[in-house]
Amino acid sequence: LLSISCLGDCQLHTSCGIQKCTTDFVSFTSHLNAALEDFDLEFCKALRAYSLCTYRNSKVCRGNLVYHSAVLGIGDLMTQRNCTKDGPTSSTNPEMTHDPCNYSGHTEMREHQGREKTPPPTYLFCGLFGDPHLRTFKDHFQTCKVEGAWPLIDNNYLSVQVTNVPVVPGSSATATNKITIIFKSYQDCTNQKVYQAMTDDLPAAFVDGTTSGGDGNTRSLHIVEKVSGKYIEMHARYIGTTVYIRQLGHYLTLAIRMPQELVMAYEESQDLQLCVNGCPSSERIDQSGHLPLPVMRKLIPWGAVSHPRSGYTLETATTKCHEKMLVKDIYFYSCVFDLLTTGDANFTAAAHSALQDMEALHPSKEHWRIFPRSGDDGVGRDSKFFVSLGLLCLILVAYL
Predict the structure, then answer these.
(1) What are the BP-aspect GO terms (predicted)?
(2) Residue 302, class by beta-carbon neighbours within 10 Å (0-12 exposed, 13-18 middle, 19+ buried)?
(3) Are 256 and 242 in contact (CB under 8 A)?
(4) Residue 276 and residue 186: Cα distance in Å, rounded?
(5) Predicted confidence (pLDDT) per residue in 6-35, tens digit
């Protein structure tokens, strides 16, 4: 950052406010991290505020060497950072040096005001993929029917609704073919923005044709297209939220990370949220978060009960899923379950991508893996994840 010394001259110009200008600039920039995406934006805002401050003091600081050094230094830095002379500036109130449209800066502001160290915000993860499989904000894993439109998230800041349709004729198996997201208006950071994705229509823009919310310069909310028509990301910096949406085969997957305090900001009437409270018991297919799939053929006469239209046996489905997922955790078993149910190999890619998205967004690595109840370590051994013939038949009948 800019380094300026008084050169023994400050006492001669007591009316010159250059020291205050410099102190404010240091305050504006001391918390910035050059590795972050918004560094240049915030640094330029601070430089413009610094330049404005020097302009206001130009007359009283006319003979001050420190003042002239600062003016030259500001010009050099603005050129180096490609800063425009016109544009937003950092607040001249030191109490307001945080960016109100940057959720990660809110904690720093609280610390500044309370003079006490506050813990960093806690983030939560939710994901939906496949047939469909749900990982809630509480890291509960469920497989559900939930045909039709259901709310995943519905709080004071964000609403996410998914629509699930039957996958196989004559079966209750469903998958997601439509996702609607509403980013609610928030201060000056964004006006309300609605995003909608459907099978074979995964746009890189909101329904109004824009790709960002609020002031385009702040990028408090924006969409990034990673793979045209197949994969987009949404970054809502003002609420610390990231959303991934993919199309794999004919269906969509969703992964989201959001701060816990915002996840829990909802009214009693908004309690039907799959990401928060899971699926209603009447819609559950799994048993307490565990898929009823044995992987040792000798236990169950699979030829008698497996879905005849899937085209996969237990062995071939296991082999297919093992190509993408070496660890036999719940994502692996979800893949096997979906192949046996639908016969659609795209569900293998969906499970694998859901696993990758979880690893990218889930904040706690120690909670990434969810294993079957037997405690199988998932490394090349046959699972002890067994169920009785009667229970398995009941589950399969639900899909027929």
Answers:
(1) BMP signaling pathway; positive regulation of macromolecule metabolic process; regulation of primary metabolic process
(2) middle
(3) yes
(4) 22
(5) 433 443 444 688 988 998 888 888 777 776
Alpha-helical runs (H) found in the chain: 18-29, 39-56, 65-80, 104-114, 260-263, 274-277, 302-305, 314-324, 330-342, 346-361, 389-399
Q: What are phi and psi of 143, to 5 degrees?
A: -120, 130
Task: Please write the tens of the pLDDT for every residue from 291-335.
Answer: 655 333 333 333 434 444 568 888 999 999 999 999 999 999 999
Structure tokens at 265: 């900001």
- What's at 217, amino acid-wise? N
Degrees to nearest 5, angle at CA 107 with 101 and 111: 130
Helix (H) or strand (E) holding 243: strand 241-248
Q: Is there a contact between 138 and 285 (Cβ–Cβ < 8 Å)?
A: no
- On the CB side of 43, CA atoms within 13 Å amount to 19
- Give ∠ CA 218-221-222 in degrees, rounded to 5: 100
Average pLDDT, the chain: 80
Whether domain 123-297+311-367 has CATH 3.40.1000.10: yes
Q: How far apart are the first and last CA of the chain?
A: 67
Contact 152, 273 (CB under 8 A): yes
Q: How many Å apart are CA 367 and CA 28, to the nearest integer? A: 37
The dihedral formed by the CA atoms of 86, 219, 25 and 108, expressed in degrees to the nearest 10:
160
Q: Which residues contact 276 (CB under 8 A, 6 or more apart)?
A: 136, 137, 138, 153, 263, 266
